[in-house]
Amino acid sequence: MLEVIELHAGYGRMAVLHGISLTVNAGEIVSLIGSNGAGKSTTLRTISGLVALRDGEIRFKGAALRNRPAEVVQSGISQVPEGRRLFSDMTVHENLLLGAYTCAPGELAERLEQVYDLFPRVRERSRQHAGSLSGGEQQMVAIGRGLMAKPQLLMLDEPSMGLAPKLVAQLAEIIKRIRGLGVSVLLVEQNARLALEIADRAYVLQMGTIVTQGPSATLRGDPFVRRAYLGL
Questions:
Q1: In sequence order, which ranges of the chain are alpha helices (DSSP H)?
Q2: What per-residue confidence (pLDDT) applies to 232?
């Protein structure tokens, strides 16, 4: 579904990504793991068109993807940003509507109902200001907003950040349920345990370069991954 081929990107004169390549197949959960500054978020932002592509190619469903955010969303890719980035003075319902700007009017009610079915707590809080919610509830709203675009590929940037362990376990189940809706997932996580628990495959980034990759079960047993990212 998604092909990233020899991708180079960065900010100003600073190069961050140095020729990385990865794929996400239909129905997969694929994770990018690595330490802070490895290039994980930059990878998602470049796919989304928020960071300029310096070299390489991004293909989605066989077609070249232009580096323009609106066209990326219209093609079927949605990103849930790090830190949730909700509009705190707007209601939960209004935040969800902001994710539906590509939605035909006749589909809006159906998409809202799908999000509310996935997140009953979001339905309960729909008239509250987003800034009044707990961290876990805000993350549910952020993911729901991403799903309002009806993506075929959902990219999640550090969704477990700042969440209590119990909520992290709930998040893992939510991501699996999203895959059950027919949505592929590209997951960026510093929590390597979580990422390797729920992903089918994973890529490990260091300093903008992929240093190893493979099925999650294989990487959980890899001595380098165990030492560097799992603390074993």
A1: 40-47, 69-75, 92-98, 108-118, 120-124, 135-147, 165-180, 192-198, 216-220, 223-228
A2: 59
Summarize the chain as % helix, strand, coil (round to 5).
40, 30, 30
End-to-end CA distance of the chain: 34
Token pair of 232, please? Answer: 């074993």
What is the pairing mode between strands 29-33 and 201-206? parallel
Query: In whole angstroms, what is the distance from residue 223 CA to residue 228 CA?
Result: 8
Count of CA atoms in the C-beta half-sphere (13 A) of 55: 8
* Nearest by Cα to 35 from 171, 201, 200, 209: 209
In the chain the domains, ranked by start, together with CATH numbers, are 1-75+189-232 (3.40.50.300)
The residue with tokens 């009806």 is 150
Task: Give dist(CA 188, CA 118) in Å, integer.
Answer: 21
Separation of alpha carbons 187 and 202, rounded Å: 9
Burial class (CB in 10 A: 0-12, 13-18, 19+), 121: middle
pLDDT per position as a tens digit, 207-223: 999 999 999 999 999 99
Does residue 210 contact residue 34 with C-beta atoms inside 8 Å? no
3-class DSSP state of 186: strand
Predicted TM-score of the model (pTM) = 0.93
Q: What is the pLDDT of residues 59-70, one digit of tens each?
A: 999 999 988 888
